[in-house]
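Re: the 288-residue chain
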Amino acid sequence: MNFKSSFKGYAERVNKKLDGYLTAQGSLIESMRYSVLSGGKRFRPVLTYAVANAFSTDFNRVDSSACAVELIHAYSLIHDDLPAMDDDDIRHNQPACHKKFGEAQAILTGDGLQALAFEVLVNDHNLDPETRIKLLQELTRASFEMAEGQSIDLSVVSQAIDIETLKNMHRKKTGALLSCSIQLGALLSSKCGVDDVKILNEFSKDIGLAYQIQDDVLDVLTPQNVLGKKQNSDIDKNKPTYPLLLGLVESQKSFQELYNRAQEKLRDLSVNADELQALVAQLHTREF
């Protein structure tokens, strides 16, 4: 089966839903639409749909969670790009939000997207109140950990740190929201039992860390026009990265081993995990 068409379908579905949530008029709508709808891999909502699909869950129950996690991701990128943070001018091969609309408007755009993410979940009447509360708890936890990871990231610039500190930072800054994407899909699926939730939790930790190590590697190896942002940006800012601490070859080996371990864990699920396996395999070979 060609799962790539499924992943494309998930991305198209969430894009349509996001477009619908971003139609209201207001002073922020142009910058919000620019930041959310102008690019992005949609990997996080694709994960949410794929997990839910493994347990035969109605996608009408999944749409709000898929949109919410992408809105949080979009807000985080806007704030990360700000001069006071990572100071990046390019995102998705176009000017970052603060370069297009100014720093103040970019901050407010991120704030608006974060608020909208929670509003989307709160107002989803396809879900019972108890499920909505559980989803909100998971998204809130992940959002806080993501901010905490960014704080750690800023605090260690130009400092020598060990690999465990770097892992902890990455598990929070990048891994928390990836893990959340998976857990949202599990929470929405009535057929997902306790053992399956545990397996998916461990799976999500592995791919969350693998994804960030791979990002560190791609930041070195991938040209800017493919990467969609400035190449070697972390190294230029004296940030600790896996290639700097372990070397490029060992870093590549590390994320490949984590992806392989994640795929091994999927074999223990009570349902067919072929689509999730294919998604991890696709990550192995991503270029941006």
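The chain has one domain: 3-284.
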